[in-house]
Structures
1.
Amino acid sequence: MARREEILKDIQTRFREDIVDFFDKSSKRVYIEIKPESIVRVAGYIFKELEARFNIASGVDARTHLEILYHFSLEDINLLISLRVKLDRENPEIDSLAPVFKGANWIEREIHELLGINFRGHPDLRRLLLAKEWPAGVYPLRADYREWDRNAIRDRGV
Amino acid sequence: MYLVYLIVYGVIATACIGLVASWIDRKLTARIQYRVGPPFFQPLRDIVKLLGKETLIPAGSSKGMFMFAPIIGFASVAVASTLLWMNSGTSAQSFLGDIIVVIYLLAIPSISIMLGGFASGNPVARVGASREMKLLLSYELPFILAVLVPIIKSGYSLKLNEILRTQSMNGSFALSISGILALIVFVLVMQAKLALVPFDIAEAETEIIDGPLTDYSGTGLALFRLMKNMLLFTLPFFLVILFLGGFHLDGIRILYSFLKYIAILLVITVIRNTNPRLRIDQAMKFFWGPVTGVAVVAVIFAILGM
Amino acid sequence: MSITLNALLKSPWVFHLSTGSCNNCDIEVLDCLTPRFDIERFGMLLTGSIKHADVLLVTGSCNRKSANRLKVLYDQAPKPCVVIAIGECSLSRGMFIHSYNCPVPLDKIIPVDAYIPGCPPKPEAIIAGAVKLIQKVRGK
């Protein structure tokens, strides 16, 4: 317990200007919202100095903005830290974490092709999951996605 | 005259007995695993069905060798089996050196599977064929040494009916020390030649995809399966001639011949069901190490007359 | 009935193909091949290569990427060949009917001969479907 408090107080003091909101939800989960410009600094600190494990990143389309959450876990104290960044819908861009640790490479490709967020500095931003004939510029997980395929059959035929 | 022998004995009789032997093997395996096995005509139905499917030739393969490889294997087993049958009838005809011809002909089925695997342009087939090649290099030496023992014991003669005559006069070779050692070596090498567990490294190691036979469909696959079933008859037949006194087709000795063959088949099936599959390097160490050693000891005992 | 089709029904070799399923139907198909239900008494063997296959057991709702691969694989199965669609996802895409990645159901891509519903179908249901298929082909 003491180590958990120590770590959280350390993050809060070190990145005082970057943290927008700090939500200590329970003893196992902490949501820290930071500004998009400081993602590389904060994530680098949590990954390298605290030696947390990068689990996954998840992207969401909230109606007014786009969000990415980066989940880091510290297994020895049972803590999951989620870093939230909010991006605007017209031009969503953020610095890539792939140069910092390799585990972010594929998940950023996936978020890019499904939500349309541009990652600056990513070495290889190609398509990961969608098929070759998928048109460019259509992002299926956005709230305003509409069916573009004329040959799709969407009724069950009964 | 020889053509009649070839067709009737070499192809038809061997194929029929081979298909029945394959059924016995599958049914016994199923019973050991607490299940019901296939019905009696199942291996024949497999081959008839395969003859009715279309044959697909992959685009990146060398087409001539791809189509020719099963024919090579099938022909060599038919001729080898004819040579063996010709010494068991009443008009036994064998020529000097026919045992060497049989040894060469029985090495060709593995080579034809290898050729087929390399001829299809498939990397999976290539890996399977290269494993088959390594296995072939490792079991040919103990095979030749094990065949050398009956040759020595029947007075250094290279004719099959000399071997049979010596056995009918002096008792079968399996009742002497060198004979038993050579018999054990021959059974292990036979398991590898028939590509059965624990040595079916080429065929089912890439277990989800079928090894060198991956790209074969239709007629080619039917010929390969028929070749394997005929080999299931030919190799134990060779063993019975060399070590156990041969088949005799007159009177009560038909029953003894039948029992000898069934006993060898049971040994093959039991070894097949109670062992895991070896890796290729373990199999090579096994054949170059203990098996060759036992074979050399058997040859030395045979030279000393025991 | 022709002799080739007769021989095909007596010794059908099975190939299992998953086009993006959640693997539940695959587990049930695997249950069918275990010694408890023993399909070797019907002459069925599980083959590894598509070129040895007579019966294709297809599970999973077909998404765009696996539709391309499925067409290539279906061309490589030597005809005559029977296709059985197992599970709700391959019948009509199940709950993925409005998904952006599954545009058409399976029988618009390859011709299907038997449909086995269930999510996942029990092994007894799969065997019953196979028996009905055999009776339908024989009765033709």
Note: Strands of chain A lie at 19-24, 29-34, 53-61, 66-74, 79-87, 93-95, 118-120.
2.
Amino acid sequence: MGDPTFSFEKNVETALGDTQLRANFAFAMSTLYQKRKAVFADEAETERLREIGNAVRQRALGKLPELLEKLEKKCTENGIQVHWAETTEEANRIILKIMEDHQARRMVKGKSMVSEEMHLNKFLEEHGKEVMETDLGEYIIQLAGETPSHIIVPAVHKNKDQIARLFHEKIPGAPYTEKVEELNALARKTLREKFQHADIGLSGVNMAVAETGTLCLVENEGNGRMCTTVPPVHVAVMGLEKVVEKLSDVPPVLRLLTGSATGQIITTYFNMITTPRKPGEKDGPKEVHLVILDNGRSAILGDPELRQTLQCIRCGTCLNHCPVYTRIGGHAYGFVYPGPIGKILTPQMEGLEKTGGIVSASSLCNACEEVCPVKIPIPELIRRMRNESYDPKGTVPGHGYKWNLPEVLVWKIWALVNRFPRLNELAVKMGGLFGNRFPKIGPIKQWTRIRTAPRLARHSLHELVKAEGVENE
Amino acid sequence: MDKRYPEKPNTVYFFGTCLIDAVYPEAGMAAIRLLQREGVRVVFPRNQSCCGQPAYNSGFPDEARAVARQQLDAFTEDYPIVVPSGSCAGMMKRHYPMLFAGDRDLNRVRAFSNRIFELTEFLVHVLKVKLEDRGDPVQVTWHSSCHAAREMGVTEDSKSLVRQLKHVTLTELEKERECCGFGGTFAVKQPAISAAMVTDKISDIRSTGAEQVLSGDCGCLMNITGAMERGKVGIGGRHIAEFLWERTNG
């Protein structure tokens, strides 16, 4: 996004001070947490499934260039037109061109995080196009002029009352109502009209099957199916990592995706799109396009450790389980992908220096790693981001931006003290004698914002052990 | 989690942790006494310092490795190494092999990591301790560090020791597996988020009605009790070793 005014710390203070926001997140996240727990109640079975998910994703990434070529070949054979975009700018231009080729003015959109990554709506609107989000959550935030605060449930930061007010204000002629059925009916009525008149439909892709050239799309509202079948042209956008090798890879990944995301065994709709409308068929789009976006992904692929970031199937469960995300919400992260996965993905795409504090916003509690359906070692990769932040010889964009002599010296001295036992004993001894009189500055100041300062013991364990006659060589 | 426990050994090493050394030495002494009471010889290598986790988690792997190597050099004999912290144990057991990937010491590190045991799992599975409670009735709650739970998998072992004490009522937290907001340097690098987390943890602790919160990790304890003290909550916190020793000795 590159917002020059982005300050993670400021966003955090704002988010933590917003009691309504915190209540909305706490409620929604605990609901999703419970739902996931219910479908993955059998620990051994879940672990087995996660192993499969991990293997499927690793295998796909291990031969990604080959699979992408195969996907393109199969899609082309099936009549799907494939486009490659190295940058989001290129992807936006490709989609604009498709629209212009068809004199298309009105687009209906299913949920797509890649399109958020591209800031597609803004781009198309600047070029005089009308873009309508049709996923209910996306529709809500589009009305509010906001960005998604969650990968799966983009309007999760809003409660029912806030949505009721929003609809009343923004939908022409909408009466004020807090009844969920009536709110749904309001959205449905508006959106149905848009579907009827849309010139083009856009969707994301949850998985693309290389073997058959099939685009898989998971959704619950049916709007995704409408976007991909009603308008005469369908454009699907995907990140280049979203490929699986075989059709038989789909069931385990699908099971993991829906179970992790919303606690469902399967979603209400699951679309497998392989061709445009064939001669003699009565419905379906006449043209299907697939835009495959790189935007830094192939660079990530080149590093065997970082590559694991690309295993992600965008289920969002790491967000729901993160003690940081569930308290500050998605907007605080300032970029498209929030939460634990955002902490490792965003810096690699945007550069460490731009994403700033988000890499330090983890207590490394490992909750994300424990639930990740494809077993991405997120805490390890967060550590890698931290290492890279200080490493002038690193490889992630923006590496070394945090290198500064005072902090580097602190750790060098720390290492020195801890490598020389007598020095360590002396330091602890001095700490015990004088440490409690240190002025409360720096880290101690931060610590004592809401806590008493640690009280250094008069006699260290090293000293007690000696005094008590425990063997100490 | 793959776990294997040895037969009861004659001798164990004790790794005190840097935090216990400087701030909670009594917890370390209590742990040593618990081990000695089971008839085990306890050796405390004087040259030990810190497991290296502070640097490892803060973006300074070279410094972490240098300090970790110091521990390899300090614990040379083939004794089990008992650690009164799930977090430091997790660092030495699970993370050392990653920290030393491709290093000349990797084989030595693997052998070292295999010898690491968290205190309560060692008391339960290797020493098979039987505790006799001599204290007054008290209601407590248990806080598990994230690494005790997720890297070492010892939460049930710790709680089983507390449950052996007849006059102690253990009331569990509603969100036992949620982080208290310590996270080492996280607490001072992201003080606002950390504060929100520990505040919620304290609400959870209060709603159990416990008089004391017990834990196997002094980092979490320093965070939780520091915030409770500042907020005048009136609930104390103890390391499990100190609590067990006090209630069963005398």
Note: Chain B touches chain A through 74 residues (CB under 8 Å).
3.
Amino acid sequence: MAFVELRSITKKFGDHVVLRDIDLAVEKGEVIAIIGRSGSGKSTLLRCVNGLEGVDAGDVVVDGVRVNDAKADLRALRARIGFVFQGYNLFPHLTVERNITLGPLIVKHVGREEASRLARDALRRVGLADKAHAYADQLSGGQQQRVAIARSLAMSPMLMLFDEITSALDPELVGEVLRVLEAMARDGMTMLLVTHEMNFARRVASRVLFMHDGRIWEQGPATDIFGAPRTDELQNFLGAVLN
Amino acid sequence: MIRDLSWIDPVYLVFALRWTIGLTVLALLGGAPLGLLVAAIGNTKRPAMRWLAQGYVGIVQGVPLLAWLFLFFFGFPIMGVEVPAWLAASIALSVYASGFLGEIWRGAIKSIPRTQWEASGSIGMSYAEQLRHVIIPQAVRIATPPTVGFVVQLIKNTSLASVIGFVELTREGQMTAAATLAQLPVYLMVGTLYFILCYPITVYSRTLERRLRGVR
């Protein structure tokens, strides 16, 4: 069984079908970039993987755990899956360090010193060792997003999900966030990322999924997806975003 | 026998204030935990639980405090339990406070963006952990001014406990007025004492509102 498996999942919001009968298998160490127009179901797909959205049909299985099973220990699973949001979603009432130590302290029950050490390590990895005592509103968007990544890293995740994490950033701040992602990919982290950064997807992704109308319309290595799109929809999409 | 109003009467009135304050404290000790429970239940994902909380708030707010006082004061003896007036009043005021505080706090919790729930849920926190470490600390900021405002209401409403014979400020005033027939001066004093107690809290509430409007 693959590390992450989506088996013919369907998701509706009311009458609107967002995901149609999607199958996907992700192996450990893969870096999957999910591209497509807004409304194509990319973010919903990602949110189904850690159970932020339930599915209406099909199964989501991560590391052998059926996410959509009511009896599944979703909390234990989520503790091992990092999720980074477009809007950072830092906890505004806590310092950067407390944002990061909260998960280890409350969910993993590590000691205070160990949690601080994890936070310092994670902050160093995202290049913000000096911001431990700042609050979110004192940081730039790029810095906030890197703290959000550090918050996930401190939980030693087995899988990272990134939901358009550079879309809300000013262009000059995108690079610093992508560099962190690239380093994580090099370290062998399994990653699913919804992104509009085509160059980044081309460079880092081991596989690219193009979503259209709630389906995985086309997928393959980045060279094929960007170099030799087979469908009109992908050609149109690439034509629109690459120019 | 009618006596004249003397210097000792204001002193008695001031001393009666301690029962007004005591009753307020008891009502908060009972009402706040219950209100927190109502707020927590009222924000769960389960519709049945939310209806339960909403129904409770609806009933508590829809029945006058006076009726709650009568209900507990005369209701317990019917069930064979004798309760002193202070206890019946404390229970009635606790129920009353829980309904209003529960609704204030439910609304404050609800106003915290969904994304904060998602972020905390995504690192594996339980509902209670999310509330305690992420949601409530932020909701407190929003809830504090209306909560303090409600405490002022509560202080004034303890005066209703006088009708079941609990001697707090208003009841003390009634007795003094009956003994001296100096109704106007006595009730002016009673009113002034309530004002002296409540006004600083109102001012404090406004200060808090200004201070808490900023971030963090």
Note: Chain B has a mean pLDDT of 93.
4.
Amino acid sequence: MKRLSIVLLAAVLLLAGASLFAAPKEVIILWAQWSPADYLQQIGSMYEKETGIKVKVVQEPWGSFGDRFFTAMAAKGTEWDMVVGDSQWLGQGATGGIYVDLTDFLKSTGIADSVTKATLTYYGEYPTGSGRYWAYPTEGDADGWAYRKDLFEDPKEKAAFKAKYGYELAVPKTYKQLLDIAKFFTRKDKGLYGVAIYTQKDYDAITMGVENTMFSWGAKWQNEKNEVLGVVNSKKAIEALQFYRDLYEAAQVPGLSNAFYTETNDAMIGGKAVMVMNYFAFFPALANKGTNPNYWDKVGFFPNPAGPYGNQHAALGGQGMSIIKFISADRQQAAKDFIKWFAQEKVQTRWAELGGYTCNAKVLKSDAFLKATPFNPAFATTMTFVMDFWNIPVYSQLLQVTQREFSKFVVEGQGTAKAAMDTIAKEHDKILREAGFIKK
Amino acid sequence: MPAMKAHPNAPGAGLADRSGRHLSDRAIQNLFIWPTLTLLIAMNLFPLLYSLFLGFTDYSAIANKPPVWVLFRNFGDILASEQLWKYFATTGRYAIMSVGLQTVIGFGLAMLVRRKFFGSGLITTLILVPMMISPVVVGLFWKLMYNPTFGFFNYLLGFTNAAKAPDLLASRFAGQLVPGLALFAVVIVDVWMWSPFVMLLVLSGLNAIPEYLYEAAAIDRASAWFQFWRITLPQVAPLLLIAVLFRTIEAFKSFDLVMGMTGGGPGDQTELIAVNLYRQAFLGSFRTGPSSALAYIILIIIIAVSNLYIRYLNQIRGEA
């Protein structure tokens, strides 16, 4: 009996050991819970058909996505092979030893040259300008605008607008035009308002919203030496913030004092807002009859307008695919194999057809992509002038300051734009100095 | 005569294992208790002590660096931070308003349902429903109810024009800023949700009051107010105080309602200390050391406030 137990135990151990050394049969990717993750799962099914390796996309709601991922990484978790993480996470992922360095992999396979320079920089590179890459640009995204084409094209509206403002009612090219149009269409007695813009305080929404005006005004978060005093609180940045508040006060749909992508989209779907700000990733819902039954065929899209000084930029969104360092070498290789396959032009074309926002340079320029959806032309234009918030490890501390001050000034109506920007500049300076990003 | 072996099942004998050795009662007790105790120590005591240690370091859970001892720097930074004291003040105001209203409304509801009437069981059950719902769900649907364009709340108040109606979560009335309105909106929801809890505790106290006290008071022609002030309230006071104690502790920990409705905004009008603790401990920050220190400061404040209640409770019990 004793001998039999030993033999059985040895057999079990041998089998267990064998399974440890067997090639991985599955690649597990963590992403936020949204439509692009569904599309990635469909892409994964294609990979399984070709290679026999299953791809499982684990989806976590946006609100808890970051917390779930970083909490697991604090415990050196190996439940996922890859994560499609926010661009802001690059600093933490790289310096915290969470992400695998993909520099050699992306360069040697030619993948680095297949995506646009801007997307490789913003979704993959840390530190910026270093030439070190930690993620494959997977889902390009940026802020854009949706608008009610039927109202813009209505002859009576056009005549009334021209009579009042002296120029034709058309898709706004500048923020001044956007404000004029927003005020024109704000009819409180009829329950119609000019805009639905980001105001949510929780994570990063209101900062991303204000960034759209800041960047188009020509303002920045830092200079080349990471200095912020006089940069964050420059005259242009203060003007931009004041403009965002003026837009909110004049034309925001009531009840949207804590609004992000769901609320702004709902404002359009409910017929309350004439123009809504949102990430391109959420525009498919507006062009879909099932989710936008009344206006799906009356919605147009345009890129973030230019500011008064001729600059035109948009707040970057989007994510890159990173390999988690804590998994075994075999699993890391399986993950690399998947990225290599995914980066092929034919797969990226399919990815774009499904609704994913490819970063592949050739696919982005193709006629097929530009004609695939009504918002793709605006997206392709926008991806040429995106700018981003900080992606350093202390980005979250910097974000909490901007979220607080922007919410106080824009939504609560407290203080002045100058005071808000001065406070942000002062606190950012302190945080950056303590973290060693500004040399004394 | 050979010595008799004790029967294995005799009292105090313990259990015999296969080789005939006995497990003593003490050993059996330990076998049952220690696995649970080990789990409790691992899940409760260890995190408590480890987080206290981390409060004295600059540790970040995701920085891939070991904790560095900084002694009292985290505590000093917190106590010197104007921003954090503002959040403590907001939490204090929230606790006073919320607990005060819950006490009055809960007591009132208990007085209304203490006597049996037709349907009293069903009505009492319906009153309890709000506290059975998940706080996050409550926060989300009250956010919809407060919406000035389609929300039910404004409709009940008689406002049909969104431009002239209150936008409570934005702290505005007819477009004009009214500071404090957002916090009051959160208080209303908290009161709606937890007054039934106070009602339950007070009801059990009311049902325990002996009838003869009221009969004696009636014979002496005591007024209704006198009976309430001199009989009902003193008899119910211990349970009422327990309810107030629990609700005060919960008010200091309030997080889900606020995150569901306002996210701490507008500005930082509804930024309660627990919400800020979450921001520091998670949401990309993972400032584990400073947030552990903040958690302990909140714990000390809660213990101090609870002690005041407990002293008063003991005083009342002593007088009784």
Note: The mean pLDDT of chain A is 93.
